[in-house]
Amino acid sequence: MVQAKADGFPAGLFTPKESAAARGLGARDLEDLVRIPPRRYAAPGPLRDLRHLSEGEDISVIVTVERTRERTMKNRRGTLLDVRVRDDEGESIQLTFFLFKAHLVSWHMSRLREGTRVLVSGTVSRYRGENQIAHPDYVLLAENPSAEEERDIAKALEPAPVYPLRGSATQKLMRAVFAKALRHASDLREVIPAAIRRERNLPSIHEAARLLHAPHESEDVERALRYFRFEEAFIIQSIFARRRAQDVADSAPALATYGALSRALDERLPFQLTPSQEEVGEQIAERIAESHPTSLLLQGDVGSGKTVVALRAMARAVDSGYQAVLLAPTEVLARQHYSTITTMLGDLARRGHLDAHEAATRVRLLVGAQKASERRESLLDLMSGEAGIAVGTHALLTDNVDFLKLGLVIIDEQHRFGVDHRRQLRMKGPGELRPHMMVMTATPIPRSAALALVGDLDSLTLKGRPREGADVSSFVVPLGDDVWRERMWERALEEIRAGRQVFVVCPRIDPDEAAEVGEVEASGAPPVLSLGIDHPLHAVTPTLETLRAKPGFEPVRIEELHGRLSSDLKRERMEAFAAGEIDVLVATTVIEVGVDVPNASVMIVLDAERFGLAQLHQLRGRIGRGEQPGIAFFATQFGRGSAQHAGLTELAGTTDGFALAELDLERRGGGDLVGDIQSGTSVAVRFLDVGRDARMILEAREDALVTEALARGSLTTSSLEPPTPGELDALDAAIARHSTRGVDDLERS
Ligand code: ADP
Ligand code: MG
After folding, report:
1. How far is the CA of 651 from the centre of ligand 2 (A)?
2. Which DSSP state fits 348?
3. What are the backbone dihedrals phi and psi of residue 495, each rounded to the nearest 5 degrees, phi first?
4. What does the alpha-carbon distance between residue 457 and residue 471 come to, in Å, rounded to a whole number?
5. 3-state SS of the chain: helix, strand, coil percent to 5?
């Protein structure tokens, strides 16, 4: 056993500089370090001769230097070093170096003397009709071939890991760090039980570490990646398996009563429930009637009518003698839910008032910015049980909020709440009882991604939209095209003149800031379509000013809304917009989730390629909610033929959010989707791609479930050997390690 030092690495292994470099990558110890993959591998092209070269080809070739020539460049600083070389077949090629430092020129000249044999690797390019290799790598060889040289050549042709560099670390330093780490690879703990590794044909961890950081050939890297992907999937699935097992072991109140409140609510619903709402309602009712806590994920596209489904479940909780809470990601949304729910309930929400219905309960709002007296009343009602239903934001999660008998927790917009939040609420149940939990999301999660990232939840899906008819047409607007751009604003004006309202969404608040700030930042969705663009992005404030000065817009009432306004101001603006006192709201994605203004008919998204497809789909869901059909404009600087334009065009042509998510997954892999969901799941994904690795994730899930069951003794016969105590211990450690890694990874990505 190696002794661990204060820096987490074996004593005396690293110099202070190396230790700093390792920690700079986020590694706390060797276990972390070996699991940091190289960014890529510098793989020299295959060894060949110089005949029949094609441009762009990566090659390696053994040549002899014929002559070198130094030229100063006319128009640029620096020196050109030309080296003419010839292979054994008599073919020749020119190597070219552009050098800015005199000492480098003499260094290369001293090594590349006439007659010297070298192994050269690089990419073939053409210059003035001739093949050349610019800036090749080269290794000096002995005058005559030998066994030792064979080894040197083989070594030079191996893929060389290229690590991410932080601070002042160099590639050479990083390689030294990993080379040293590999010396201790035999101390690494096996996370995957031996029986599973055998069955899945996976190497041991120390073999995998060697294959990843010191591969002999590209197949080695493949084998290493297969190991690390599986290991990651296995850890995540083990976390899910344990949470599920915990749910089975815990007790929950059985919310089984369809009573007076539920009956009265159903009687006064202003619409007929859709078949899907009925069906999903039944499924939820069944699950919360169980005496073990249930963990559900309710997926339903924007506008599919999740709120009423949630309210009906909450009514059951109240009928069963328990309380229910609905959590929203933003204050705007929490207030809107509060008003929707109190409106739908009417006198059913007025318990204690003279005009209350006999089955009435009380609904309480709890948000961060709230009058102290109002907050106190809410807290009292939750503690005494007077309020059967609470609606709020994170404010509900603080320690001083106590429920008398919390039986059901519903979280709207899952990806903005972490698992920690979920757990915190779970602990607010009465005594030993844990409340049931349901998270609702409009971000459609394809099945493979759901298994990989939220596999501890059982998924239910709400299909269709209750109100067909008010359709949204989508258009992609190339901002570089004056006619298109002006037509877009003209169209917005027409709608405003007809008494309707317009959203304009920008990716920034200020022109020079990095990102939207404030409460919505948790959405943190990486811009999915932005590929190395460098034009100024639209920002809220300048866009507001431009619009106010725009001919035709003089009578138009335009205001801004973003996360940096005080929450009072935000609420005022949102309410004013909802009341029709503002015509155009220039905003960030603050407005993305849930906001319901039926009179809004136009959604203009500027620099639309900066947003995720799922996010754009959500934004589009803000309009067409009333009688009027909606028009969504996705405006982009990118012209036809660009990948960005193409992505937006596909979005414009698809109205099904689930299809869009599958499309996202197919086209760009799971990375972006993961970013969306991950911030809410606390499972960190580094090696896995939920699209590509779907099958492996299923296998890992199977293995994790069996391992968990074998460990608990709830499964006694299996083709798999039970894990040893040592193996379980190592898995425990890996799970603990993984749970603390998520946040780091997100910050680094
Ligand atoms: P989301 O799933 O996006 O949260 P909401 O719950 O906000 O959707 O519902 C969208 C709109 O559809 C709301 O105005 C709601 O009142 C309405 N709605 C919900 N269910 C029905 C239904 N069965 N028939 C008609 N309208 C409905
Ligand atoms: Mg909603």
Report:
1. 21
2. G
3. -65, -40
4. 32
5. 40, 20, 40
- Of 311-320, 402-411, 499-508, 648-657, where does mean pLDDT reach its minimum? 648-657
Q: Convert 679-748 into a string of H (helix), E (strand) and C (coil).
A: CCCCCCCCCCCCCCCHHHHHHHHHHHHHHHHHHHCCCCCCCCCCCCHHHHHHHHHHHHHHHCCHHHHHHH
- Report d(CA 344, CA 312) in Å as an integer: 11
* Bigger pLDDT: 471 vs 21: 21
Mutate which of 265, 268, 307 for ligand 1? The one with the most ligand atoms within 8 Å of its CB, which is: 307
For ligand 2, the distance from its centroid to the CA atom of residue 514, given in whole angstroms, is 29
Q: What is d(CA 319, CA 643) in angstroms, rounded to the nearest whole number?
A: 53
Tokens of 333: 């949304």
The DSSP 8-state label assigned to residue 189 in this structure reads P
Ligand 1 within 6 A of CB of 344: no
- Token reading at 638: 């990118």
Neighbour count for residue 717 (Cβ, 10 Å) = 6
Dihedral angle sign, alpha carbons of residues 559, 563, 564, 567 = positive
- Integer Cα distance of 614 and 444 in angstroms: 8
Q: What is the DSSP letter of 251?
A: B
626 lines ligand 1 (CB under 6 A): no
Q: If you measure from the C-alpha of residue 676 to the centroid of ligand 2, how many angstroms do you get, rounded to a whole number? A: 17
Contact 196, 700 (CB under 8 A): no
Closest CA to 391 of 323, 459, 444: 323
- Tokens representing 437 are 């939990």
Phi, psi of 145 (to 5 degrees): -60, 145
The H or E element spanning position 314 is helix 306-319
**Residues 558, 563, 565, 567: is their CA dihedral positive or negative?**
positive
Lowest-confidence region among 361-365, 444-448, 695-699: 444-448
**Over the stretch 506-556, which tens digit does the pLDDT of each residue have?**
998 887 654 332 222 222 322 222 223 345 789 999 999 999 999 999 999
Q: What is the pTM of this model?
A: 0.72
Q: Alpha-carbon distance 606 to 614, whole Å?
A: 16
**238 exposure class (CB count in 10 Å sphere: 0-12, 13-18, 19+):** buried
Residues with CB under 5 A from ligand 2 (ion): 594
DSSP state of 527: P
Distance 442 CA to ligand 1 centre (A): 13
In this prediction, residue 387 has a pLDDT band, given cuts at 50, 70 and 90, of very high
* Atom of ligand 1 at shortest range from CA of 598: 14
- From residue 615, alpha-carbon distances to 30, 303, 582, 657 in Å are 38, 14, 24, 10
Q: Assign residue 26 a region: left if phi > 0, alpha if psi is -120 to 50, beta otherwise?
A: left
Nearest-CA residue for atom 13 of ligand 1: 305
**Ligand 2 mean position, distance from CA 737 (Å):** 35
| Beta strand extents in 314-380 (DSSP E only) | 323-327, 362-366
> What proportion of the chain, given as a percentage, has pLDDT over 90?
52
For 257-272, what is each residue's pLDDT tens digit? 999 999 999 999 999 9
- What span, in angstroms and rounded, lies between the C-alpha atoms of 135 and 139? 13
Q: How much distance in Å is there from the Cα of 391 to the middle of ligand 2?
A: 13
Q: When comparing pLDDT for 394 and 69, which is higher?
A: 69
Q: Is 341 in the pocket of ligand 1 (CB under 6 A)?
A: no
Beta strands in 447-553 (DSSP E): 458-462, 472-478, 501-505
The residue contributing the CA closest to ligand 1 atom 9 is 305
- Which strands sit side by side in the sheet containing 584-587, from one edge to the other? 472-478, 630-636, 600-606, 501-505, 584-587, 558-561
Residue 438 CB coordination number (10 Å): 28
What's the distance, CA 610 to chain centroid?
15
Residue whose CA is at the smallest distance from ligand 1 atom 10: 303
